[in-house]
Amino acid sequence: MTKKVRIENADTSDHKITVQTWVKGENGEPDKLLREDDLSSPTELGEFYVWSDQYLVVVEKEQS
């Protein structure tokens, strides 16, 4: 079943997050990074999809 989820950068600091969308590998292949979406502004909202072969990873973006 496909699920639509929302992820918000709910922190008001200047720390940014990245949402990575991954697809599970088949036949022993490694998982593949499909895309990366930055949520850079406080209260910025992103909509993403997950299902049995696709998942999300949320990471704090390195400060530059």
Structural account:
Helix content is 0%, strand content 53%. With 64 residues, the protein is an all-beta fold. The chain has one domain (3-60). A hairpin with an 8-residue loop joins strand 2 (17-23) and strand 3 (32-39).
Describe the sheet with the most strands. Answer: 3 strands, antiparallel
Proportion of strand residues: over 45%
Question: Strand order within the widest sheet?
Answer: 3-2-5
Number of domains: 1
Distance between the termini: 39 Å
Task: Find the count of extended strands (DSSP E, 2+ residues).
Answer: 5
Question: How many helices does DSSP assign?
Answer: 0
Q: What's the Cα radius of gyration?
A: 13 Å
The shape, in one word, is flat
**Element pattern in H and E:** EEEEE
Helix percentage range: under 10%
Average per-residue pLDDT, rounded, comes to 94
Segments where pLDDT lies below 50 for 5+ residues?
none
Tell me which oligomeric state these chains represent.
single chain
Helix/strand/pairing category? mainly beta
